[in-house]
């Protein structure tokens, strides 16, 4: 069974999770990387070191973002997934970085200056999310093999 998430369910999933994936291209080759993120209702915020991901998004700012929630308890696999097209934007001004770091929880609570503390060389960026779509589904869990072997282990025999 597969269905569509409502816009409210999409927003709730984006707000609830903290690990997602950014998809980008380098020389026509796709890459997908996990990131720790925060969501503000219109975009995600991430801190990253320099490397292939940052270089690629600077060269081609159109990216895709994915997040999911998977529950494998109770004999079924219940999943929800959101995919969104987005645009990479590097945050270089103090206000933008402060907002991002506050959302990410990287500013010490009670700090008198509330100035971001960012290790040298780290990049703070935002992905403005455009079109967001979501799906959900339920599948029977496979406990080490085919459904027949699972049913056999459970002493179930079809009539």
* Total separate domains: 1
Q: What is the makeup of the main sheet?
A: 8 strands, antiparallel
What spatial form do the alpha-carbon principal axes imply? globular
**β content, as a range?**
35-45%
Mean pLDDT over the residues: 85
CATH architectural label: Roll
The beta-strand count equals: 8
The radius of gyration is: 20 Å
How much helical structure, as a percent, in the residues?
10-25%
Low-confidence stretches: 144-153
Summed up, the helix count is 4
CATH superfamily: Electron Transport, Fmn-binding Protein, Chain A
Highest-level CATH class: Mainly Beta
Q: What is the CATH topology descriptor?
A: Pnp Oxidase, Chain A
Could you spell the SSE succession in H and E letters?
Answer: EHEEEEHEEHEH
Distance between the termini: 25 Å
What class do helices, strands and sheet pairing give? alpha+beta
């Amino acid at each position: 069974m597969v269905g569509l998430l409502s816009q409210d369910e999409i927003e709730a999933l984006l707000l609830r999770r903290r690990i997602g994936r950014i998809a980008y291209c380098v020389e026509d080759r796709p890459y997908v990387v996990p990131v720790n993120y925060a969501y503000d209702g219109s975009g995600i915020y991430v801190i990253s070191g320099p490397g292939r991901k940052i270089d690629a998004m600077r060269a081609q700012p159109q990216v895709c973002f994915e997040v999911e929630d998977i529950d494998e308890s109770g004999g079924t696999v219940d999943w929800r997934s959101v995919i969104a097209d987005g645009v990479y934007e590097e945050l270089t001004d103090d206000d933008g970085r402060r907002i991002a770091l506050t959302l990410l929880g990287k500013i010490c609570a009670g700090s008198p200056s509330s100035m971001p503390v960012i290790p040298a060389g780290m990049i703070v960026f935002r992905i403005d999310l455009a079109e967001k779509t979501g799906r959900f589904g339920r599948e029977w869990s496979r406990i080490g093999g085919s459904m027949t072997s699972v049913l056999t282990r459970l002493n179930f025999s079809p009539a």
